[in-house]
């Protein structure tokens, strides 16, 4: 079975840093692009970042560009999100999601999420 | 930046049909996906490529996309369908765009 397990969420002060991890299993990880998506309390889903299967295409939402960095490690079957210069408004549950190999790039599997709280 | 607009809420009686719209400029020129999100749970893909259902998604979920509007239809709505629903598309300028979300209440 496909499984995505996020970790690394924590309480951090504004201006701090955090690194989220997403461990994948049950599929050939290096064949799939991956996304990070977040949901702030009481808000909707917000796409954050995309990394292609070959690691050569990366996108960020404007809200995190220059502060967040996505990467992947094929040997560890994992995707990471390095979050720097965190703001109160980055408080959210962060999900990793697998991008299906289909036109339109739907996200067909999601992790359970990890909570990031930015507060002093 | 590209935007997708959904009605904030839709109410439906059990067994009736719920219709959720998603509006965006020339949305019909791109594929739309739909996700179901329940409190405390991860999002669940219910429709992709406008009208296809992933394995395990009930037939009562259907989709369409034309012009500026994508539509998710839940036929014979059940209490378990009460959730937030989000449309999503892939746009060249902002690769992933989610809609504003619609809360479906089954009264």
Map the helices and strands:
The complex is a heterodimer of chains A (120) and B (107).
Chain A: E1 3-7, E2 11-12, E3 18-25, E4 33-39, E5 45-51, E6 58-60, E7 68-73, E8 78-83, E9 92-99, E10 107-110, E11 114-118
Chain B: E1 9-12, E2 18-23, E3 32-37, E4 44-47, E5 61-66, E6 69-74, E7 83-90, E8 96-98, E9 102-106
How many helices of chain A? The count is 0
| Annotation, overall tally of beta strands of chain A | 11
Radius of gyration of chain A over all CA atoms, rounded = 14 Å
Radius of gyration of chain B: 13 Å
Give the mean pLDDT of chain B.
95
Helix content range of the residues of chain A, please? under 10%
Report how far the terminal alpha carbons of chain B are from each other. Answer: 36 Å
Order of helix and strand elements from N to C terminus of chain B: EEEEEEEEE
Count all strands of chain B and give the number: 9
Largest sheet of chain A: 7 strands, mixed
**In percent, how much strand structure appears in the residues of chain B?**
35-45%
Which structural class should the secondary elements of chain B be placed in?
A: mainly beta
Could you estimate the helical fraction of the residues of chain B in percent?
Answer: under 10%
**Strand content of the residues of chain A, in percent?**
over 45%
Largest sheet composition of chain B: 6 strands, mixed
Order of helices and strands of chain A: EEEEEEEEEEE
Tally of helical segments of chain B: 0
The overall pLDDT average of chain A reads 96
Biggest interface in this structure? Answer: A-B, 25 and 28 residues
Net shape of chain A: globular
The low-confidence runs of chain B, each spanning 5 or more residues with pLDDT under 50, are none
What does this structure look like?
The complex is a heterodimer of chains A (120) and B (107). Chain A has no helices and eleven strands. Chain A is an all-beta fold and 120 residues long. In chain A, the strands form two sheets. In chain A, strands 2, 4, 5, 6, 9, 10 and 11 form a seven-stranded mixed beta sheet that branches. Chain B has 107 residues and is mainly beta. In chain B, strands 1, 3, 4, 7, 8 and 9 form a six-stranded mixed beta sheet that branches. Chain B has a three-stranded antiparallel beta sheet with strand order 2-6-5, with no helix packed on it. The radius of gyration of chain B is 13 Å and the shape is globular. The mean pLDDT of chain B is 95. Classes of the chains: A mainly beta (120), B mainly beta (107).
